[in-house]
Design a protein that fits this description.
Length: about 170
């Protein structure tokens, strides 16, 4: 996966200011006794070829914005923190997070609540969105809007999702 950050260069022209193929990807093992999506996590050595196994997943944080100073989080490890930060479901005030997650066959999260406005899209496979009143099967191209809504995810076959999380709280 290539990542391009555009902007205006020193000559006032639109340009690619930063490009990299080294986005951070984490993998986790599922547990019904811990946080909604993971018990242990580790960085993936080769994200381009990694496939999650049964009851596990992988998350690539494509972009995260920060407010102080404003901008896109870069490759500097100091830009990433444990909580809130990469592999955290927290989206602090004024922050957005765009991620791609792949789930292995048999994955299921606990019912959870994120204090964010989430825009989710199924890219591959099949994901089941579990709400308190019903379950919805999402297939490639299907989307869901979750404005601070209690929910869980399940897949029998495995699936890949893109999601944008936006803090509903101004900085």
């Amino acid at each position: 996966m290539m990542r391009y950050i555009t902007g205006v260069d020193a000559n006032g022209k639109s340009a690619v200011l930063h490009r990299t193929d080294s986005v951070r990807t984490w993998t986790w093992t599922n547990s019904s006794e811990e946080a909604p999506h993971f018990v242990e996590r580790r960085l993936v050595e080769n994200p381009a070829t990694f496939q999650p196994g049964p009851h596990s997943g992988a998350l690539t944080e494509v972009f995260t914005t920060r407010m102080n100073p404003a901008g896109i989080v870069e490759e500097d490890p100091n830009d990433y923190t444990e909580a809130p930060g990469l592999m955290s479901l927290d989206v602090p005030a004024g922050v957005t997070r765009w991620c791609v997650a792949s789930y292995g066959p048999g994955y299921q999260s606990k019912m959870h609540f994120t204090d964010s406005i989430d825009f989710d899209m199924c890219i591959a496979g099949e994901m089941i969105l579990i709400l308190e009143t019903e379950e919805i099967v999402l297939r490639p191209g299907d989307t869901a809007y979750l404005p601070r809504t209690p929910h869980a995810w399940r897949t029998e076959t495995g699936g890949t999702f893109a999601f944008l999380m936006i803090s509903p709280h101004p900085k």
